[in-house]
Amino acid sequence: MKTFFSIIFLYSTIINITAQSKIDLLSVQELEHQRLEAAKEIELTSQLLNETSADARNSLNRLNLLTQQLIARTKVITLLGQEIASIDRKIDAMTKEIEILDKDLITTKENYAKSMANQQSEYRTAQHKMIIILSAENFTQTYRRMRYLREYSDWQKTEAVRILKKQDEVTRRKTELETSRKSKQTLLTEREDENRKLLSEEQDQKTTVNELNKRKKTLQQQLQQKIRESDALNRQIDALITDDIHISEKNSSTSASTATNKSKSTSTPATASSTKGNYIMTEAELNLSKDFASNKGRLPYPITGNRRIVSHFGNHQHQQLSHVRTNNNGIDIQTTVGAEARVIFKGVVTRIFLMPGFNSSVIVRHGNYLTVYSNLMQVYVRAGDAVLTNQAIGKIYTDAANSNETILHFQIWKERTKLDPEPWIKSY
User: Fold this and answer.
1) Which candidate, 303, 331, 398, 386, places its Cα nearest to that of 359?
2) Which of 3-7, 37-41, 166-170 has the highest mean pLDDT?
3) Tell me: the pLDDT tens digits for 254-281?
4) How far apart are CA 345 and CA 391, in angstroms?
5) Among residues 113, 197, 265, 413, which is most buried (max CB within 10 A)?
6) What CA–CA distance (Å, rounded) separates 52 from 54?
7) Which residues are CB-neighbours of 247 under 8 A, at least 6 positions away?
């Protein structure tokens, strides 16, 4: 009986260790997924860096790319360290499992040895079994003893083989884990080398930063010009949205008057809100607006090909340049030459216009939400066109005089309120 409960305890321990190993395996897979995603960021940023020279005109943008590259690479190194730690825990768990199985196997062999010693002859074995069976008090007990002897015999024959197979399996898994750990360690070393290279590149870039600091007045003039262009774009978008609101109010009034003349019982078009100054939506637009809002965090990037956000929403102080402060009404996404802007959700093109510093811009309405795609050199759509999710609407402008810099300026509005686009679009 003591041996039986010992075996139960051993197997319970093995099951618990195996379950923990499975949890650790899921953890490793998730960490590896995150690491691969971060590696993709490094790859695409490297491509953008290769296409962007380090001349004086674009050194600020290049510095921003290098900084983000460093952040992504550091993230990879951190995730690799976490993967290695998780693998270490799994190796420890596997080692304990093998130790338990070894003890179980030794106990089984000892039991076999004792059994063989007691079974010196067929007659004695048969006599011993017969005594156990005949000493039973009733038929039910006799049947149970016969079944026990048969099952115990079968168990003795198969248990050692099963444990040996289990031990072989665990040993194989341990070997795989150790190989995986060595592989991850190699990757970590490689990533650390790349990080040192990047730090060296950033150090070189600081020379350019020093030059920019020396040309503080000129840089500030350039930034002020960009701010003026951005403010002008913002005023133009706001004016166009205001026009849309006035048009929707007129259409709503006309529809209501027509409906009243036809029948007192006829209902007016559904509206999203009766608040004065808001865009009055039809029922279809109201549903479209709800669909857009429900997809927050799952909307695609407004761009094809490799991309990197180089300027974020809101007011920011540059980390390296104390005299550089930016205020962005949306986000700026750098991409490769030939990339196209694409719609992040189905809607209707309401406006297409030109603005200095931003070339052509397209506004797409999604109910009372609007998306703005600026800095296009070629536009594929016209005002009034219905567009679908991921539909290309224009080719992004490439600045040949500035190292072929290709950047899309993207905004999201709700009514007349600017929103941060990043929480709305999904990660890679």
Assistant:
1) 398
2) 37-41
3) 665 565 555 554 444 444 444 567 889 9
4) 9
5) 413
6) 7
7) none
Which residues does 92 contact at the CB level (< 8 Å), separation at least 6? none
pLDDT value of position 267: 44
Task: Write out the H or E segment, with its range, that includes residue 219.
Answer: helix 216-262
DSSP for 339-403? Answer: -EEE-SS-EEEEEEEEETTTEEEEEEEETTEEEEEEEEEEE---TT-EE-TT-EEEEEPEEGGGT
Q: 3-class DSSP state for residue 424?
A: coil
Q: Rounded distance, CA 391 to CA 362, Å?
A: 13
CA dihedral 45, 47, 48, 49 (to 10 degrees): 90
pLDDT in tens, 218-247: 777 777 788 888 889 989 999 999 898 888
Which residue, 255, 241, 243, is CA-closest to 283?
255
- The C-alpha R_g of the chain, in whole angstroms, comes to 36
Q: Is 399 exposed, middle or buried (0-12, 13-18, 19+ CB in 10 A)?
A: middle
Asked whether the beta carbons of 333 and 313 are under 8 A apart, the reply is no
Contact assessment for residue 367 and residue 379, using Cβ atoms and an 8 Å cutoff: no
Select from 230, 245, 250, 240 the least CA-distant residue to 351.
240
- Cβ contact 334:310 at 8 Å: yes
Are 329 and 411 a contacting pair, CB within 8 Å?
yes
Q: pTM for this one?
A: 0.66
Q: How far, in Å, CA of 356 to CA of 228, rounded?
A: 10
